[in-house]
């Protein structure tokens, strides 16, 4: 074992309370939430009361003003227990940082305390039925009309879509200007003309309320523009490294848990009169997986350190997301194989993790887009 050095004693105490909270408040109910298609909304408020939401937010807005390590711990503990319905990572690591980093003082005062307490659940709506990887192709428009914007369009695959009270919406304020015409708007979900569509039925992450959203002449006050008009694309590029690191952190924690479940299983399960763990194939598979996992853990922890120092560049974050999620899918597939038929049964955590993990290579920018980002940077080098 290579000891981890990214977390302090305070981080580990925080981990302890997150873990205990999830064991009692979430794990026993997650199976039911998978059937419901969403987690219990009260869970958000309970987590808020414990200080688990948005740990980075400055004290001036009621936050704890902690480093990203605290977000990473929440992500890791959720992932270890396979509680993929809980969309706190999207809220704390992805959506809320847009308000912290680009919001006006009024926006911060108005929204951040609720984001911390769990009274406000956030989402970020980039993807549309006709535009995912190619974000410049979004067709949602926000047309300025006096003191407000008129928002029209639709979004899909939006994490926290049913629970969301506040959505960071990517829209074109100047459709002729390409990337320079993209802006971000803070849209309250009870605005007239804002409709939440279907809670989408997915292959995995069944307790996550991933949804369609529709905007039909929604009047968004001009003061809800996030940052500058036409700056949205730049903000997205600046924030995506943290989103991709968060996905990678998640992936590696999940791999560590899955290899643990598998070791336990192969020691217990017998075939041909001996435990599955006695077969050389099992031993070699586990050895190979754990070797790769060890290397990736060190790499992702180094990325975390760089991120604490605000030095994690776009290309390295893309490498982290690409490697961690490709490996997660490979590991879960191999671990499921070692479980035999029981591994394919939904009641086994390995089955759910296998199904839940597949999307990790698709969202937060597909792994093909990660390769584009990495190669672009490589080819720019002298
Ligand atoms: C469970 C889930 C949760 C999600 N949560 C959110 C969310 O909260 N907010 C949000 O905005 N979006 C969210 N998404 C959407 C997600 O980010 C997109 O699905 C993703 O970016 C891919 O876009 P797409 O589905 O349009 O695929 P497409 O862009 O149509 O891609 C299809 C295929 O073509 C490949 N491809 C595309 N362009 C290139 C290229 N230039 N070179 C090589 N290959 C290419 C892709 O890699 C992919 O394999 C979520 C998706 C899912 C499934």
Which key phrases capture this entry?
single chain, four-stranded mixed beta sheet, binds flavin-adenine dinucleotide, alpha+beta
Describe the structure.
With 382 residues, the chain is of the alpha+beta class. The protein is built from eleven helices and ten strands. It is globular and about 80 Å long. It binds flavin-adenine dinucleotide. Flavin-adenine dinucleotide is lined by residues 90, 123-127, 132-133, 157-159, 202, 205, 210, 359, 362-363, 365-366, 368-369, 372.
- Overall spatial form: globular
Q: State the helicity in percent bands.
A: 40-55%
Strand order in the sheet with the most strands: 1-4-5-8
* Number of DSSP-assigned strands: 10
Task: Supply the number of helical segments.
Answer: 11
| Low-confidence sequence ranges | none
Report the structural category.
alpha+beta
Strand proportion: 5-15%
Mean pLDDT: 97
Rg (CA only) = 21 Å
Secondary-structure element order, N to C: HHHHHHEEEEEEEEHEEHHHH
Q: Biggest β-sheet, characterized?
A: 4 strands, mixed
**C-alpha end-to-end distance:** 38 Å
Small-molecule binders:
flavin-adenine dinucleotide
Short description, anyone?
With 382 residues, the protein is of the alpha+beta class. It is 51% helix and 15% strand. The radius of gyration is 21 Å and the shape is globular.
Write the layout of secondary structure elements.
Layout: H1 9-25, H2 27-36, H3 41-50, H4 68-80, H5 88-102, H6 105-117, E1 122-125, E2 141-145, E3 148-158, E4 166-172, E5 182-188, E6 194-199, E7 211-221, E8 225-226, H7 232-268, E9 270-271, E10 274-275, H8 280-308, H9 314-339, H10 349-357, H11 367-380
Parallel strand pairs: 1-4
Antiparallel strand pairs: 2-3, 3-7, 4-5, 5-8, 6-7, 9-10
Helix pairs in contact: 1-4, 4-5, 4-7, 5-6, 5-7, 7-8, 7-9, 7-10, 8-9, 9-10, 9-11
Residues 90, 123-127, 132-133, 157-159, 202, 205, 210, 359, 362-363, 365-366, 368-369, 372 line the site of flavin-adenine dinucleotide (FAD).
């Amino acid at each position: 074992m290579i000891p981890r050095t990214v977390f302090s004693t305070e981080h580990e105490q925080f981990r302890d309370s997150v873990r205990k909270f999830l064991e009692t408040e979430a794990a026993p109910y997650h199976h039911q939430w998978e059937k419901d298609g969403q987690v219990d909304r009260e869970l958000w408020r309970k987590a808020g009361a414990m200080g688990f939401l948005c740990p980075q937010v400055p004290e001036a807005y009621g936050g704890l003003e902690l480093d990203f390590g605290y977000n990473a711990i929440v992500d890791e503990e959720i992932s270890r227990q396979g509680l993929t319905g809980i969309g706190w990572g999207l809220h704390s690591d992805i959506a809320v940082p847009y308000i912290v980093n680009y919001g006006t003082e009024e926006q911060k005062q108005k929204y951040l305390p609720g984001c911390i307490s769990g009274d406000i659940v956030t989402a970020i709506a980039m993807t549309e039925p006709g535009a995912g990887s190619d974000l410049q192709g979004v067709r949602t428009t926000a047309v300025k009309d006096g003191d407000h914007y008129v928002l029209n369009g639709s979004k899909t695959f939006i994490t926290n879509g049913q629970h969301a009270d506040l959505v960071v919406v990517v829209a074109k304020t100047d459709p002729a200007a390409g990337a320079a015409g993209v802006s971000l708007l803070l849209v309250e979900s009870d605005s007239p003309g804002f409709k939440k569509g279907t809670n989408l039925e997915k292959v995995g992450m069944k307790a996550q309320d991933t949804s369609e959203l529709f905007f039909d002449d929604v009047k968004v006050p001009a003061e809800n523009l996030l940052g500058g008009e036409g700056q949205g694309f730049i903000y997205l590029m600046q924030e995506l490294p943290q989103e991709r690191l968060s996905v990678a952190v998640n992936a590696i924690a999940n791999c560590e848990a899955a290899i643990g479940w598998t070791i336990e299983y192969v020691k217990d399960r017998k075939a041909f009169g001996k435990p599955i763990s006695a077969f050389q194939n099992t031993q070699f598979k586990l050895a190979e997986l754990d070797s790769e996992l060890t290397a990736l853990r060190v790499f992702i922890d180094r990325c975390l350190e760089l991120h604490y120092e605000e030095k994690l560049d776009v290309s390295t974050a893309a490498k982290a997301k690409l490697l961690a999620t490709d490996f997660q899918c490979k590991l879960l597939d191999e671990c499921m194989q070692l479980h035999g038929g029981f591994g394919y049964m939904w009641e086994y955590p390995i089955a759910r993790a296998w199904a839940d993990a597949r999307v990790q290579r698709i969202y937060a920018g597909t792994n093909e887009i990660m390769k584009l980002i990495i190669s672009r940077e490589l080819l720019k080098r002298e």
